[in-house]
Design a protein that fits this description.
heterodimer, A: 618 residues, Amino acid/polyamine transporter I, B: 234 residues, alpha+beta, Alpha-Beta Plaits, 5 helices, Collectrin_dom (chain B), cell membrane (chain B), Collectrin (chain B), glycoprotein (chain B), transmembrane (chain B)
């Protein structure tokens, strides 16, 4: 390659100010909302400490090899996802397109979640917190009925935040409050993303580190709350029998995969801005281990707080029973306490069983309260907000929590958007007159406008659809093709040579075994198992319907045909670009046999004069 | 047949009045116990005040009766209600009891339940404060607690926070865009400066035909003369 164009391309391509920025950006991309609200949930339902075994196995044999592969390929080929796979083989350009489409679709709904986080953040400054009490109804006679039948926290989330419609078919109207929050979220994303990695690199100093600070503060606070130890004990007590359930292994593999944000193209984009000589093996190990360590670290305060919440609920349950007994038997106030409740109950039951049974006392068991698990938005916006009300100084904890969620999500958004921006830049789709700032602004505006569907009344249902259908199967397929591309088309030998050039040593036997055998097999198994499991259960969604007879339970409604066809489209459209581009290239290769290969007879010393300034006929 | 009616003598009248006076507490108790116009009151002192809880004794009951009389006075506007008009019975250790309100004019007649309820609701806040209790801890069974009126804000606080955040972001975006524009202007001025500034020393003035017609300042790389040194070794 001639030196001048090489130097000019190096000058044109942006680069990281220092290694710390690069590492923080990758860590920020990998560490996201899922580390906070999905991993602890999985730990809880899959037998506590026992879940760590399939999780760590998946990390070592699936997560780390794929991560290393993506970082290495981006760093050596120095292009975004489309450019990289196109360089390896033009037949595989579709893999990059698929990554870009998935990054775009995921960015849409991910930022909507951040808009919800902002909404809660804005309201965390109110005293008392608005989700702590039911609002009074219009005649000022009592509380709003929907709130009374469910809980204030549920009512606040479903009615006052989302204003959710009872059905996905009923779209409702645009919620202007959510539109404002969405606009704010996209503006904040834009200001960090405005110059690409130049501004992202500075923003991550805050967004990637702040969550750890908040997690530590929460850890200290949570461990001093009553009932924290119950929660922690419950979380970490291993239940080894669950390891025989294949669903556990499947969920561990998918959790590692999605947690590391693989196959989005964002990691490839980030590493493409690295200098050529950079130890990507150490980077991959660092990012992967930090991601899993963060998941574990976050689950401690989460579970301490959930234990506290379960204990509070248990205490209120027992206290309401105590009040009933005190009032019915006219016993002195505070004579029955939580400690002597059982003995009092026995005595009263012995003396007057009819009256006791007529009271319909609730059956309060701490384990039942601990068993109430939640993940995703349910954990953050319902369970956690309920816990925060009970903590003294609720506003402070609410503000801290939502700022932490926002910065976690923001740093992941950077990766999503880079997965869209870098390929477009590499394909030279940006008109030359348009400065980068305008282009990134255009991307943000387009995203904002499309994401307005999530601010409708049925927005939450659509978001769940996007989450389950876009952020799952397409990623697995893309990752599978990525490994195939590197192993079969690029060649492990050539790849090892590149890595030796970059890091100074060849990848050792473990990496090569994983790339050539273990990881593709694991991915294929996970993909097939995931699809099989999804196909078996008829897709339903939990709808919040106040008219439902079992309200406040959510109603399980099936997806109608047109909605389900959209689900299938969402899963297949990103992936369909892979065969389409491959076919297109194959056809082109056959019809234009010479265009793909350099013609040995063209002599570049003599450029065709007709293309330059035409001199008048002399 | 003529019935002989005997007018009661003075002694009989005094005796009768004495009996009534002595029996009146008993009568009063009957009025209280059997009445459907009575309200049950439950007081949870330890829940409300913890260690600072005072003891419920006759003086506290006296205070209660006087506050109820006050509530009736306030509601009806008549100053005739007195402590004798509030009858209390069925004391338990809970602390709970039943009370009824009698008409000032006729101690055997009770005020209907609805009127008492209205009076209590009107003055509930004052009654609570007299005992350092709240709606939860001073409970009138059957009288729903008055709902706290939601605080009406002129500007909801969340809009204020939203305004602050979006203001900062907008300022930041404008600042970054301005800096880009000024950078470009400075770069363009430096480019144009070669053509226009003839006075500066050391800057060669170009005749504007060859190089300025090209897009890149570096000129066009002539591939006829490539840097062969890397490939040809002597």
């Amino acid at each position: 390659m001639d030196t001048a164009s090489e130097t000019s391309s190096v000058q044109e391509r942006p680069k990281w100010d220092n290694k710390v920025q690069y590492l923080l950006t990758c860590v920020g991309f990998a560490v996201g909302l899922g580390n906070i609200w999905r991993f602890p949930y999985l730990c809880q339902i899959y037998g506590g400490g026992a879940f760590l075994i399939p999780y760590l196995i998946a990390l070592v044999f699936e997560g780390l090899p794929l991560l290393y592969l993506e970082l290495a390929i981006g760093q050596s080929l120095r292009k975004g996802s489309i450019g990289v796979w196109h360089s390896i083989s033009p037949l595989l350009g579709g893999v990059g397109v698929a990554s870009m489409v998935v990054s775009f679709l995921v960015g849409l709904f991910y930022n909507t979640i951040l808009a919800w986080v902002l909404w809660y953040f804005f309201h965390s400054f109110e005293d008392p917190l608005p989700w702590s009490q039911c609002p009074i109804n219009d005649n000022l006679e009592g509380y709003v009925e929907e709130c009374v039948s469910s809980t204030p926290v549920n009512y606040y989330w479903y009615r006052q935040t989302l204003n959710i419609s009872p059905d996905i078919e009923q779209s409702g109207s645009l919620q202007w409050t959510l539109v404002l929050c969405l606009a704010t979220a996209w503006s904040i994303v834009y200001i960090c993303f405005i110059r690409g990695i130049e501004t992202i690199g500075k923003a991550v100093y805050v967004t990637a580190t702040f969550p750890y600070l908040v997690l530590t503060i929460f850890l200290v606070r949570a461990l001093t709350l009553p009932g924290a130890t119950d929660g922690l004990q419950y979380l970490f007590t291993p239940d080894w029998t669950l390891l025989t359930n294949p669903q556990v292994w499947l969920d561990a593999a998918t959790q590692i995969f999605f947690s590391l944000s693989l196959a989005f193209g964002g990691l490839i984009a980030f590493s493409s801005y690295n200098p050529k000589k950079n130890d990507c093996e150490r980077d991959a190990l660092f990012v992967g281990i930090i991601n899993s360590a963060t998941s574990l670290y976050a689950s401690i305060p989460i579970f301490a707080i959930l234990g506290f919440k379960a204990t509070s609920n248990f205490n209120s349950c027992v206290n309401s029973n105590i009040l009933d007994l005190t009032n019915a038997f006219d016993i002195g106030d505070r004579n029955i306490t939580i400690e002597n409740y059982d003995s009092w109950l026995r005595d009263l039951n012995a003396s007057d069983p009819d009256r006791v049974s007529s009271l319909n006392l609730k059956h309060c068991v701490l384990k039942n309260f601990l068993d109430q698990s939640a993940s995703g938005t349910g954990l953050a916006f319902i369970v956690f907000t309920e816990a925060v009300i009970e903590m003294p100084g609720s506003q402070v904890w609410a503000v801290l929590f939502f700022v932490m969620l926002f910065s976690l999500g923001l740093s992941s958004m950077f990766g999503n958007l880079e997965g869209v921006l870098t390929p477009l830049l590499d394909l030279h789709m940006v008109p030359r007159w348009m400065p980068k700032e305008i282009f990134t602004g255009l991307i943000c505006v387009v995203n904002f406008l499309v994401a307005l569907i999530f601010t409708l009344g049925s927005g939450n249902y659509w978001l769940e659809i996007f989450n389950s259908y876009v952020g799952s199967v397409p990623l697995l397929v893309i990752a599978f093709f990525e490994i195939i591309a590197v192993v079969c088309f690029y060649g492990i030998k050539r790849f090892s040579d590149d890595i030796e050039q970059m890091t100074g040593r060849r990848p050792n036997l473990f990496w090569r075994c994983c790339w050539m055998g273990i990881s593709p097999v694991m991915l294929l198994v996970v993909l097939v198992a995931y699809v099989v499991v999804q196909v078996q259960k008829h897709p339903t969604y939990p709808a919040w319907n106040p008219q439902y007879e079992n309200f406040p339970e959510t109603e399980e409604k099936p997806y109608s045909t047109w909605v389900f066809s959209i689900c299938v489209l969402l899963s297949s459209v990103p992936v369909i670009s892979i065969p389409i581009v491959a076919l297109y290239r194959l056809i082109r290769r056959h019809t234009h046999p010479h265009s793909g290969y350099p013609n040995p007879y063209t002599n570049q010393s003599y450029t065709d004069d007709t293309h330059t300034q035409s001199f008048k006929q002399i | 047949m003529r019935v002989k009616v005997q007018m009661p003598s003075g002694e009989m009248i005094t005796g009768f009045l004495l009996t009534i006076i002595l029996l009146s507490p008993v009568v009063a108790q009957d009025l209280c116990k059997e009445s459907k116009d009575g309200f049950k009151v439950r007081i949870s002192l330890k829940t409300a005040l913890g260690n600072d809880a005072y003891e419920w004794n006759e003086s506290e009951k006296f205070l209660f009766r006087s506050t109820l009389a006050y509530a009736m006075r306030k509601k009806t506007g008549e100053d005739t209600y007195n402590i004798e008009n509030i009858l209390v019975c069925n004391d338990t250790k809970r602390v709970s009891f039943i009370f009824v309100v009698t008409l000032p004019a006729d101690p055997t007649q009770l005020i209907p339940k609805e009127e008492v309820e209205r009076a209590v609701r009107q003055s509930k806040h004052r009654i609570n404060n007299a005992f350092l209790l709240s709606d939860m801890t001073l409970e009138f069974v059957g009288v729903p607690p008055t709902l706290a009126v939601p605080i009406q804000y002129n500007t909801p606080p969340w809009l204020i926070v939203f305004g602050v955040v979006i203001g900062i972001v907008a300022v930041g975006i404008v600042a970054l865009l301005m800096s880009t524009v000024s950078k470009r202007r400075r770069a363009k001025a430096k480019d144009a400066g070669f053509d226009q500034d003839g006075d500066d020393e050391g800057i060669v003035k170009e005749n504007g035909t060859a190089l300025s017609g090209l897009n890149k300042k570096d000129g066009v790389y002539n591939q006829a003369f490539s840097n062969d040194e890397r490939f040809t070794k002597l």
